[in-house]
UniProtKB/TrEMBL annotation:
Protein name: TetR family transcriptional regulator
Coiled coil: none
Database matches in Gene3D superfamilies: Tetracycline Repressor, domain 2
Top-level taxon: Bacteria
Natural source organism: Actinoplanes campanulatus
Amino acid sequence: MPRVSEAHLAARRQQILDAAARCFVRNGFHQTSMQDVIKEADLSVGAFYRYFKSKNELITAIAGEKISQATGLLDQLLALDPMPPIPEILKRLLELVDAAAEHDGTVRIAVQVWGEAVHDPEVGALVEEIYGRVRERAVLIAERARAAGQLPPDADVTGAGAAFFGLVQGYILQKVLLGGTDRRTYVSGVRTLLS
């Protein structure tokens, strides 16, 4: 029996994640069954369960993929010398959010995951670990901003990092729940608050 290539396995896994994302965006996390995802992915039950055993595993993979894009961008910006101003970093992150909203709507899944994290300890641990990576980088941004004089010398970088992270979550919530949230207006408002 021929071995399946790593590229084939990765493509099949992505096929499942894309199908799950479409289902979660369309029907919500709770209203989507594993059967719905299997049907959407156009796979047999056996082929599907080779990759994922539960909806929580699917959510973990989808969230991890999206957060990796955000942490990758933050790592690139942190590597710059000088580091861009905080509003510019926020603008770049929100461009990622808008791209995900326009491309496949997966931003909506983030809000569902946050709500689920309140009731499901497994999802709560996932959210803490995955989003903790973004908040850690936000604290590093605040440290660099303080060192560069963008923040006062006595600024609480942990608090500033948490607030920066909250600005991203706030934008996502407004975009999903209220609609019509404009990135330029939002970043302009943040610039006003920072001044």
